[in-house]
Amino acid sequence: MIKGANDAPWTSNMRNSTVIFILSVTLVSILDAQSTCPARCLCYLDRLPRTIACSKQGLQEYPAGISDIVQHLDLSGNSLQEIPEHVNSLVDLQYLNLARNQLTALPSDLRGLKKLQMLDLTENNLKSVKDIAAISHLVNLKILHLSKNSIEELTSLSNNRTQSLYANHCSIKELNSLSLSGLPALNLLSLSGNPLRVVLRPTSDSLRWLDLSNCLINYLNPDTFERLTSLEELRLANNPTLVYSTRYETLQHINLKRLDVSRCNLDRPGLHGFPALTHAKLSRNIIRILPDRIFAKNRELLQLYLDANGLDSLNKSSFAGLTKLEILDLSANALQEVHWSTFNENIKLHRLNLSYNGLHEFPNLTTEAIWLDMSTNLIYNFKSNVLSNMPRLVTLNLNNNRLENIPNNLESNTLKNLFLRQNRLVQLNNESFVRLSALRNLDLSGNRLTEGIDPDLFWNNKFLQAIQLEDNPWRCDCEQLYPTYKYFMESQATDRTWGLVLISLLTMVILFGSVVSLRHAMKMKRHARLERQELERAEARERLRLLQRRNQRLEEELLEQTAEPRIHPLELIQPPTYDEAVDMPRLAHSMEALDTMSMDNMSIQAIGSVDNLRSKKRRPRRARKRSQSEDNLARREERREERRRRRLSLERNNSTSVLSETNQLEESSQLTESNAEIAIKETERTRSRARSICEDGDRTKIKPRPQTPSARKKKRRAMARNGHSTDDEDSELDQLSTRLNNKSNSSIIIKKLTREPRSGRRPSPQESDF
Ligand SMILES: *[C@@H]1O[C@H](CO)[C@@H](O)[C@H](O)[C@H]1NC(C)=O
Ligand SMILES: *[C@@H]1O[C@H](CO)[C@@H](O)[C@H](O)[C@H]1NC(C)=O
Ligand SMILES: *[C@@H]1O[C@H](CO)[C@@H](O)[C@H](O)[C@H]1NC(C)=O
Ligand SMILES: *[C@@H]1O[C@H](CO)[C@@H](O)[C@H](O)[C@H]1NC(C)=O
Ligand SMILES: *[C@@H]1O[C@H](CO)[C@@H](O)[C@H](O)[C@H]1NC(C)=O
């Protein structure tokens, strides 16, 4: 087996050491194994079954060097035209695939392939079984594929062991008594897709499975399969013109168990010749009527398919005698009604299919069915007692009907799955499911439900696991869907379907509710903003109160102090020095406020405030103006003297009234405080008032400029001197005094006062009259 070419290098290594020798032997054996693998093939000889695969390699010739130990050899999909005789050396070969080549014959001797069990000659150029006569030498051949060859008959094919023969899509036109004579062990024969017309009593004692579908069989005599004594399954599907039953005679076979005659030309079932029949497929024929007791002889029948036949009515005893029937398919017919006792005798019925019919009402059936399919009908009506005679019903499919409501008190102790997809349900009745105590799955998708599902509907459905709700025009209102959602979330039953339902519901809520929630969020935002404003206002109010309290205190202090002399602008003859300017009183009020300013308020002064700085800046200009009017100096001097005198007398006279005024101020500050509160509470009614107060608050909010220590010192000094602190307080007091003035008793005092022009302000018109 070792080839010389590989030998030479390794023999030289052998001399060096035994270790290398052993190694080399191993390598040689590997190389040897590979060397026996033909070009363009894959070899798997180190495992069972030992396989060489050379499929679809474009091989023109049988590849050389195929190891004798091969068990499975795949040469399919090549262009082989012949197989050489030396294929007989493959003594272990069990499986030989020669499909889709161009073979016209096999070697005349195949005796060497003693273990060959399966030979696939599908889709070659075999013209006749005579060209493959050597098959008879294959003493172990069990399965033979001859499909898609131009073989016209099987008569001379012989093999004592062959059990299965596939000769589909060949050119076989006739099956007669000699056809199977060379295949005594044949079990299965598939002749589907042949131009077979004539079937004349084929003979085989072993054949159990015969497929004659997709042929051209026209008529079958009653005794056609008489000599296939062991036949159990017969497939005759899609013989478009096939008829085997007339009024007088019908095909017969006493052992036949399974018959498929779908897509033929039967106008009646004709099953009475098959007493052992268990499975009958009569789909897609033209059976229009089912007379009473027509299946009475098929006592063994388990499955009967009569779908797509054009049945427009069932007699109430059509299925009588079918006591073992388990599956009855009557779908895709033209049934408009079904008598309630039609399935009375089918006591073993498991699955009853009435889908794709024209039923208008849910039939009042008495049936043992476990699975009842009535989908795709025209059912619009449905009575509450319809399930009462279905003692074993577990699944009821009513998808694709026209139901607009589910009746109350629908009762079943066994129903687990209720499918109501694609109906016209608008609302769920609060008693619809109460008596369906075993309900597990409920499909309500594709209906017209708009209202969230009331969890109370299911109070008695303890086993409920899944409710399908998608594809309904839910009114997407979180408020009404939330109870449903909550019910689903809290429910103990949780499985994957449940999760899916939840996810779909959630997606729905999220999608449809997003708009609503967005709007809600915006509303909340607005609300928060209002609240914040409210808070700020409250803060302002608080600050105001503190301020007023401080003012009060300061005023009290003021009363105790003797007023320090201060410089009045009009006392100046020259422009003021810096210190003088600093000590000058400052005007922080509007001209209108001046009219109502009290004596005390006029003396308010602040240092380091914005207004003050502004006035400082302006001061030089003022001074210049004053200096320009130097010709009036003498007159001014006179006026000043006069005023001083007047003021002195006034102060003397009003020292008591100042006191009373302070009390007044105190009182009114309290008044203002409560006023502010009321104003804020009743924002709508007293909006203007509230706004003015708010503005006050805002003004107090403005942080004073950071003060230098010296400025602070100065300020303290000024406060001590003047009795007032900042211009903010000033403005507060401004208002206070305005209010104060509105009171008749305080106005008396104020009217008596002469106004004092302050620095940084132009004299008012009245003043210029002086
Ligand atoms: C097949 O079996 C029959 C007897 O059963 C025998 O006479 C015949 O020679 C066998 N043929 C082959 C090819 O072995
Ligand atoms: C259907 O049943 C009625 C009475 O049960 C009978 O008169 C009629 O002939 C039956 N039809 C067929 C086709 O058997
Ligand atoms: C009933 O028949 C229809 C159509 O023939 C089919 O789609 C459906 O799956 C069948 N139902 C059952 C429960 O077998
Ligand atoms: C329903 O079937 C029962 C027998 O099971 C029968 O007595 C009753 O009259 C039927 N009801 C209708 C409305 O057909
Ligand atoms: C069902 O609803 C009706 C009114 O819509 C009410 O009278 C009845 O009590 C409800 N039944 C149950 C079981 O909730």
Automatic annotation (TrEMBL):
Presence of keyword Transmembrane helix: yes
Protein name (database record): Insulin-like growth factor-binding protein complex acid labile subunit isoform X2
Encoding gene per record: LOC107274486
Composition skew (Polar residues), residue ranges: 656-675
Top-rank lineage group of the source organism: Eukaryota
Basic residues composition-biased segments: 615-626
Regions annotated as coiled coil: 518-564
SMART domains: LRR_SD22, LRR_TYP
Region of interest (Disordered), residue spans: 607-770
Biased composition (Basic and acidic residues): 627-641, 679-701
